[in-house]
C-alpha cells in the first residue's frame, strides 16, 4: 500500500528525509490520479468515489482528502490533466507538414484529434457524458477539454485566417462533432451510418473523408 510516511525507525542521512517525503507524496498523487482516471474510464461516475479510488490506488483514503481535498478536487485535477492530454496527444509542432493555410491547420487538427480520441477510453467516456449527463462534474471535464483545444488552435494559427465569409467557429464545431461521433459510434458498434469502422483501412477512409470536408470549406 502506498504511504507517504517515512519509516521513523530508519536512520536516513541528514537531508534525506525531506527528499523522501516529497518523492513519496509525488508518487502517491500520481497513483491516485491514475486510479481515478482508470476508474472513470471503466465504470463512469456511477461507481466513482473516494473509497473506490483509494482501493485502486492502494492508498489510505485520507491521502485523497489531504492531497486533493476530496472528490471534487480530484475531478478538478482530472480536468487540469486534460490540458496535458491535448498537449501530449495533439502536439504543437507541424509534424513535417507545412501549415501554409488555415485549411492546413484544420486538417492537421482533425486527423490528430481523430487518432487521439480513438486511443483514449476516458476521453471517449467524457464525450459520451457530454451528450447524456448534465452534471457539474461532467461540465467541468468538458469545459477543461474544450478550453485546451481552443488554446491549442489559438497558439497554432498565428497569422493564418479562414477564407472570408466562412464562419470558422461554426464549421470547426461541426467538424469536431463529426470526429467525436465517428469515434463513439466506432467504439460502440463498429460502424456509423453504414460506414464500417472496424479496421485500419476503414479509419483511413474516414480520415480521407474528413480531409475532403475540411478542404471543401477552407481550400
From TrEMBL:
Chain positions covered by the region annotation Disordered: 1-25
Protein name listed in UniProt: TetR family transcriptional regulator protein
UniProt-recorded Gene Ontology molecular function terms: DNA-binding transcription factor activity; transcription cis-regulatory region binding
UniProt keyword DNA-binding present: yes
Keyword entries, A-Z: DNA-binding, Transcription, Transcription regulation
InterPro entries: Homeodomain-like_sf (IPR009057), HTH-type_TetR-like_transc_reg (IPR050109), HTH_TetR (IPR001647), Tet_transcr_reg_TetR-rel_C_sf (IPR036271)
The HTH tetR-type domain, residue ranges: 26-86
Portion annotated as DNA-binding: 49-68
UniProt-listed PANTHER family: HTH-TYPE TRANSCRIPTIONAL REGULATOR BETI, HTH-TYPE TRANSCRIPTIONAL REGULATOR RUTR
Amino acid at each position: 500500500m502506498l504511504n507517504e510516511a517515512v519509516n521513523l525507525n530508519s536512520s536516513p542521512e541528514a537531508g534525506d528525509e525531506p527528499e523522501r517525503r516529497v518523492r513519496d507524496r509525488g508518487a502517491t498523487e500520481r497513483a491516485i490520479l491514475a486510479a481515478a482516471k482508470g476508474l472513470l474510464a471503466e465504470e463512469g461516475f456511477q461507481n466513482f468515489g473516494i473509497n473506490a479510488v483509494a482501493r485502486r490506488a492502494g492508498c489510505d483514503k485520507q491521502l485523497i482528502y489531504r492531497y486533493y481535498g476530496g472528490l471534487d478536487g480530484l475531478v478538478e485535477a482530472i480536468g487540469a490533466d486534460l490540458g496535458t492530454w491535448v498537449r501530449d496527444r495533439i502536439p504543437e509542432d507541424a509534424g513535417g507538414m507545412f501549415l501554409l493555410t488555415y485549411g492546413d491547420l484544420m486538417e492537421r487538427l482533425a486527423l490528430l484529434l481523430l487518432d487521439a480520441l480513438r486511443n483514449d477510453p476516458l476521453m471517449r467516456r467524457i464525450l459520451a457524458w457530454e451528450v447524456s449527463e448534465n452534471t457539474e462534474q461532467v461540465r467541468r471535464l468538458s469545459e477543461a477539454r474544450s478550453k485546451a483545444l481552443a488554446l491549442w488552435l489559438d497558439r497554432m494559427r498565428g497569422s493564418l485566417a479562414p477564407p472570408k465569409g466562412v464562419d470558422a467557429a461554426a464549421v470547426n464545431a461541426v467538424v469536431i462533432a463529426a470526429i467525436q461521433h465517428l469515434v463513439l459510434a466506432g467504439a460502440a458498434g463498429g460502424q456509423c451510418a453504414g460506414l464500417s469502422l472496424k479496421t485500419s483501412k476503414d479509419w483511413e477512409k474516414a480520415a480521407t473523408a474528413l480531409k475532403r470536408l475540411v478542404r471543401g470549406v477552407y481550400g
